[in-house]
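Long-time lurker, first post. I've been practising inverse folding by hand and with some scripts of my own, and I keep getting stuck on stretches where the structure tokens seem ambiguous. Below is the full token string for one chain I'm working on. Before anyone asks, I'm not after the true native sequence, just a reasonable design that respects the backbone. If someone could post their per-position residues I'd love to compare against what I wrote down in my notebook.
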């Protein structure tokens, strides 16, 4: 059974940093696009960042570009999201999502027409709260 397991969420002060991790046991990660989504109470799920099978292709929501960095380690089957200069509006439940693609594909996903529905596999989420 393919599972995604997020970790690293915490309560952090504005301006602080966190690193989220998405473990992907059982996945041949180089054949998957992986994304981070978040959902705040009362709001729709929002694509935050994604990494394509093509190692040089990443994408970010405008609201996090320049502050967040996504990276993947295919050998260790993990995807990280480094978050810096966190703001209260970054608060939410952060989900890891994955979709199988052709190896080397540049499809990343968060800005695709399918949006979140384009990802078949989802984790349970890790809570990030930015506040004093």
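-- Answer (accepted) --
I ran through it position by position. Result:
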């Amino acid at each position: 059974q393919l599972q995604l397991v997020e970790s690293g969420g915490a309560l952090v002060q504005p301006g602080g940093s966190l690193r989220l991790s998405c473990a992907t046991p059982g996945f041949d990660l180089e054949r998957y696009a992986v994304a981070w989504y978040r959902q705040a109470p009362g709001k729709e799920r929002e694509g935050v960042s994604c990494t394509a099978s093509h190692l040089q292709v990443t994408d970010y929501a405008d609201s996090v570009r320049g502050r967040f960095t996504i990276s993947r380690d295919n050998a260790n089957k993990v995807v990280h999201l480094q978050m810096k200069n966190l703001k209260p509006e970054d608060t939410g439940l952060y989900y890891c999502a994955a979709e199988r693609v052709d190896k080397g594909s540049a499809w990343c996903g968060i800005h695709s027409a399918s949006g979140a529905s384009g990802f078949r596999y989802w984790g349970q989420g890790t809570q990030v709260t930015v506040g004093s």
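A couple of notes from the structure itself: The chain is about 0% helix and 40% strand. The mean pLDDT is 95. Happy to go over any region you disagree with.
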